[in-house]
Amino acid sequence: MTAGAAPSTAYDDLPYTRGGAAVDRTDAGALVQAAADGDAAAWKALVEGLSPLVWSVVRAHRLSDADAHEVYQTAWFRFAQHLGRIREPGKAGAWLASTTRHECLKVIRSAQRLTLTDDPRLLDRASEDGTPEQSLLDSEEAAAQSERVRRLWQEFEELGERCRQLLRVLMATPPPSYHDVSAALGIAVGSIGPLRQRCLRRLRARLEARGAM
Amino acid sequence: MSDRHDDDLFGEEDFDDREFDDELLEEELRRAAAVLDAVPAELQQIALDAYALHDLEARVAELTFDSLVDALPVRGVTDVPRMLTFQAGEVTVDVEVTAQGLLGQVLPPRSARIEILGGPRPGSPLTSDDLGRFTADVPLSGPFALRLRTGGDVVVTEWLRA
Predict the structure, then answer these.
(1) Which ipTM score applies to this complex?
(2) What is the Cα A81 distance to its own chain's centre?
(3) A96: helix, coil or strand?
């Protein structure tokens, strides 16, 4: 099954695609199997297809950059280690999302044990130093667009924690299935749709209040 | 709800429009994330290289106890070592991670050659004594796993972040 498959009503079967190229469940199962059998190209496809999801889950938990990098690596190392032993290879995305979530929660827990409040590791934000993408954005013809993106991002960052977390995972590329989102955040599949709607509308209201839409 | 009842058709169109707007906004966020908070390239490269960690020879020792999750914190005591237990069949590996390094024991007691892995590169070697005890004086940071070779058996502990 690829991106154009007929839509299904079961949340569980929502494809990884809600509009992009993707690793859907059947593909994921086949890729995991092939990678376990020694096919390096299959591994590459898995990394390219699911890496943004893992990163989004890490980012949703607001770790420091150093912790974020370590959790991301741990998730992939463990995935490589368990290739061929994963019970439901078709749910590789959910497996990775859930592994990443648990490692994030451990980081948060160990930080809480070290200092009870105001741990900067929990509060610091995505680094904003100049990446190549940033410089591209800064080019003159992109200036207006860039300003809009920046405002959008700023309003997104200032949403309540629950909304910020959900949207950060939903905005992974390709769009994750609700099943993966559920694994990433530990919330019921059935509550994702209504929450998403509420959070997106809240974000839109903030943008409108700023005259940004 | 009653007003929607009066005008089902418009209600539905409204709904579709709003859903469409939601899709657009989510898509815009997706593009913003791809620009402002993409996976760092060097990190994705590490994930690609991690394929080397797929080890057909080894059995995976699963984490069965992690004091970070399974033990209650002791109030006022902050510098507690992290206690971990891994299990692969009849082999148990107990590990204590401290600021100085780690110490551990293979059970049932046996001598083992042990490698501390930090990623898809060769790790630093250790040997356990006849009682299965081992120590390392290098502080752990980041992801790590232990690869144990004992007799003809190879066991690797589940990857964890120290």
Answers:
(1) 0.87
(2) 22
(3) helix
- The predicted pLDDT at position A109 comes to 87
Give CA–CA dist B29/B35, Å, rounded. Answer: 10
Closest-CA residue of chain A to B22 = A200
Q: What is the pLDDT of residues B100-112, one digit of tens each?
A: 899 999 999 999 9
What distance in Å separates the CA atoms of residue A77 and residue A71, rounded to the nearest whole number? 10
d(CA B81, CA A7) in angstroms, rounded, equals 51
φ and ψ of B151, to 5 deg? 60, -130
Break chain B into its structural domains and give their ranges.
2-38, 55-161
How does residue B52 score in pLDDT terms, banded at 50, 70 and 90? very high
Residue-wise pLDDT tens digits, B62-98: 999 999 888 776 666 667 789 999 999 999 999 999 8
Cβ burial of B149 (10 Å; 0-12, 13-18, 19+) is middle
In sequence order, the 6+-apart residues with CB closer than 8 A to the CB of B2 are none
For residue B122, the distance in angstroms to the closest alpha carbon of chain A comes to: 14
Find which of B28, B55, B161 to mutate to test the A interface (most A CBs within 10 Å of its CB).
B161
Alpha carbon of A157: minimum distance to chain B alpha carbons (Å): 11
Mutate to test the interface with B, among A39, A72, A81 (most CBs of B within 10 A): A81
User: How many inter-chain contacts (A to B, CB under 8 Å) are there?
Assistant: 147
pTM > 0.90: yes or no: no
pLDDT at A129 over 50: no
Separation in Å, CA of A45 to nearest CA in chain B: 9
CATH of region B55-161: 2.60.40.760
